[in-house]
Amino acid sequence: MSQFFERKKQELGVQLNKIQRKAVERTEGPLLLLACPGSGKTTTMIMRIGYLIEEKRVSPHRIKAITFSKASANDMLERYKRFFPTLQPIDFSTIHSLAFQITRDYFSGSRYVMIEGSETNGLHKKKLLREMYQTENDEPITDDQLEELISFISFVKNKMLPRKQWAKLKEPFPGAIEILKTYEAFKENYDVRLVDFDDMLSLAFEALDKDKTLLAKYQNRWDYVMTDESQDTSLIQHAIVEKLVAHHKNLCVVADDDQSIYTWRAAEPTYLLKFRTVYPDAYIMKMERNYRSSQNIVHTANQFIKTNKKRHDKNMFTKQPEGDPIVLKRLSSEEAQFKYLMKELKELSDYGDVAILYRNNSSSTLLMSELERLGIPFYMKDADNRFFSHWIVEDMLNFMRFSLKPERIDIYSKVASKTNAYWSGSQLKMLSRMKPTGKNAFDEINLTITLKDYQLRILAEQKKWFAALNGMKPLKVIRTIRSEMGYDQMLASRAEKFGMKMTYLAQILTTLEQIAEPLESMTAFAKRLKQLEQVTQQAKVEKTDDMLTLSTFHSSKGLEFERVYMIDLVEGVIPTEEDAETPDTLEEARRLFYVGMTRAKNHLELISYDSESRFVGEVRNLIIPEKRQVSPQRTAVKTPIKVKVPDNPNAIDSEDDLREGVQVRHRVFGAGKIIERDKERISIQFAKERKDLMIDICLSYRLLELM
Predict the structure, then answer these.
(1) How far apart, in whole angstroms, are the C-alpha atoms of residue 156 and residue 169?
(2) Is there a binding annotation on residue 37?
(3) Is there a binding annotation on residue 698?
(4) Which of 109, 150, 216, 396 is the most buried (most CB within 10 A)?
(5) Alpha carbon of 354 to those of 139, 243, 551, 563: distances in Å?
(6) Which of 361, 429, 431 is nearest to 402 (CA)?
(7) CA distance 317 to 315
(8) What does the alpha-carbon distance between residue 391 and residue 490 come to, in Å, rounded to a whole number?
(9) What pLDDT score does 216 carry?
(10) What are the tens digits of pLDDT across the range 662-692?
(11) Contact 361/382 with Cβ under 8 angstroms?
(12) Considering the entire predicted model, what is its pTM?
């Protein structure tokens, strides 16, 4: 061990393993450092910077570190200051910050206007896109669609896709490509150059590609460049880095292709597989030892991710104790999952090292409501208030407001098109111009607007329903609006027309019903929604060491907890139907699941209900058919020992025999009938209960025979 490593061991108590030391010492030329979860990559990077300065006498000003986010840049800078308090800081920044510097130099002397961030002279990206959508579709864009449109534009820019390829792209909703064209044309033809954050990347690359003087300036600024979280880097971001290091090629890329979960933001994980194509002399190292998690978690997660094909082959291992077995809970319903979680949490005395992880933010609303009621302190890593301002939530509240004040024709005009009355565009415009007179709105409509006979009949029914709503509990109110007033039918029609995800929209209504269930009045329902909105806002800003963490899988990356509960692990959520469409998108969904699993140190629970996620099935196949022992070879990796299978010459040995309607006998549960089957599992109705069984386990262990 060199004096540097011995010195740091004494000063900091930091002791690197053999691979980490090699990564620190290999400073010259291109290096791809593949770092498994919990392998100490940040410590290794910081030590590498210190080694360059203290041992190789490189000036701190000649080292550049590029991170994925501002938070990561700040975290690395703080870690660097703790490790090397007497050294000058090096340049830590995001790729966008670097691109901004380059673009500013490129435009030196020329005027341009940034239209993202703060508004300038009435120009703002979101405002412009809202107006363009309104023009294209003759109706306002929803917040969800706006986010999808912004992500789509960012994807196109980061993929460096030429305009001739735009027409072949899959749109987030019909008309998105036309809006993209309009947006780009508007920026280009404006009096001054209009620039958004994604343009910064395009312009930075253009600057380095076209302005040789500027390229030389930035190439000569740094002798060593490091990039962190490079599996989340887009094609154009990689291209900028390639320009910067073209002269010396002293580039250290730290990444884990198994944790690439942002391809929808144009991340390019396949770049890592082609690294030697770009840098033929590159050295590739693998940091495979996990210091975070127990053997049970590490071994299972390592085997689970190997199902993916497009990846560097890695074998994550650990020397940690075996730890708790991974818990698989398949419950009868979402409500049962919810009750189980609350029971589990109430038995804990400390929440500071506990996390509940989920795919979508919509999963957090009811959790948050019950946690607040029970007085369990919690923090939301990525709290999203958009749920409470979603147009579906506003629709339900407007239906309720109008039922309480049927003279408010201005409120009815906001939801009229969401009912089954088949309003025409001209009728809706007339309706929107009408003012309350104090009389029942339906009586005023009949006197003012010319209606078809069938519309008169429908409005007469609506008048009765709105009067009836006044005496209903809020849960029944929502269900009545959905079924009797045609709201669900309208929702399906709008989802198809505008490319919205029906499962997501239906989940919002389900959440509203669950919030409404214990409440006695519509007023109490509206008040509870406002309370939850305030709680969500507070949960984003307050964070103490004793708080439970709620987070999406995406936002949990980089975090670790003693106990992790992964919830809502059902088909349609993870993976979604869109995930399952192609092998690449399914592999990304599996990587996202893997990220969630590897957040846990010792206790991991995978919780599902209804149609269990195929990923839970994959984990079950890894841990249930095997009994594990500690291997004496290399780092105590667990190896399977096959369970002895009882001899049963009459057992079913072909899955073709396992058809719906077939009568079978189970070695433990007795006689039953197969009532449902998919590719992986069968449901058998036995005398007293129904059982869901994995097909391959039934065959491997010869559990079933025909009757």
Answers:
(1) 9
(2) yes
(3) no
(4) 396
(5) 44, 43, 11, 5
(6) 431
(7) 6
(8) 13
(9) 96
(10) 998 887 778 889 888 877 778 888 877 777 7
(11) yes
(12) 0.81
